[in-house]
Backbone:
């Protein structure tokens, strides 16, 4: 395995790219032509130690964060320390990420190698086996729920943090609220899985404790997001839309706090399971 002192090139790319402007004509009989900012999209091919692994459709911002988070949440590596180098090459709509990983992680990758084809609307990208769709995950240590006051005006703060979405729309976001209730990180992408991967990568690369706060996703909370959150060691996942029954079951099974933040009512804690009414009385 490479020396832990080996040089790593994990330079943060936190500045989002500007949305591309496009002209459109309004369909109102006056044929007015206006400009609109649209979200950018590119194909990112990911290789580990020279072996092609996946092609993902992503937004071209914070790509090193995405690669780091994707590598962990897809179980290619078990720790950020398994990643020695990330190099992004190419331009325009075709980019390539070459990732240098340790020997142990690379051996495991070759053992379970599968082809993935990522799409912006995908669920479990390229997964062909039921065992891969419903993997064995190590349960988290139970953690306390965030204070209720950390949810005050959270939706408004999220909207303010989504710089790209305000200009172009069509973007999901994953955000991190720290132990003091401050919104520390925001990562945006056309893909909801990609946004969470970017956030996980940013947490790892900045040395932030994923359990000292909570993550928020603006998208539907699907099962694969639960997988990613558990693998990343997040203690709490908050979704702006209601979870499915399966996500609740998996969150409870793996001790991940799962909270839904509705538009006009108090946060709803689905995991851990609430006490039965008889127990409360």
Residues:
């Amino acid at each position: 395995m490479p020396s832990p002192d080996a040089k790593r090139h994990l330079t943060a790319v936190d500045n989002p790219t500007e949305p591309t402007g496009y002209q459109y004509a309004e369909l109102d009989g006056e044929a007015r032509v206006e400009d609109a900012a649209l979200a950018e999209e590119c194909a990112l091919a990911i290789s580990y130690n020279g072996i092609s692994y996946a092609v993902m459709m992503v937004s071209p911002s914070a790509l090193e964060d995405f690669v780091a988070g994707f590598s962990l949440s897809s179980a290619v590596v078990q720790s950020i320390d398994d990643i020695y180098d990330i190099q992004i090459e190419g331009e325009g709509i075709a980019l390539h990420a070459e990732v240098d990983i340790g020997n142990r992680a690379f051996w495991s990758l070759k053992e379970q190698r599968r082809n993935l084809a990522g799409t912006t609307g995908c669920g479990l990208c390229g997964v062909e086996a039921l065992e891969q769709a419903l993997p064995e995950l190590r349960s988290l240590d139970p953690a306390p729920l965030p204070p209720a006051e950390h949810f005050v005006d959270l939706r408004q703060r999220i909207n303010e943090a989504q710089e790209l979405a305000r200009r172009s729309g069509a973007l999901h976001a994953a955000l991190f609220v720290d132990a003091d209730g401050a919104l520390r990180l925001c990562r945006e992408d056309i893909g909801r899985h990609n946004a969470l991967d970017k956030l996980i990568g940013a947490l790892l690369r900045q040395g932030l404790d994923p359990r000292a706060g909570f993550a928020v996703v603006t998208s539907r909370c699907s099962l694969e997001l639960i997988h990613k959150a558990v693998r990343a060691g997040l203690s709490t996942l908050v979704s702006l839309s209601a979870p499915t029954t399966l996500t609740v079951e998996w969150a409870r099974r793996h001790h991940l706090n799962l909270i839904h933040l509705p538009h006009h009512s108090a946060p709803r804690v689905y995991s851990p399971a609430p006490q039965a009414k008889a127990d409360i009385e």
Summary: The radius of gyration is 20 Å. The CA atoms of residues 270 and 276 lie 13 Å apart.
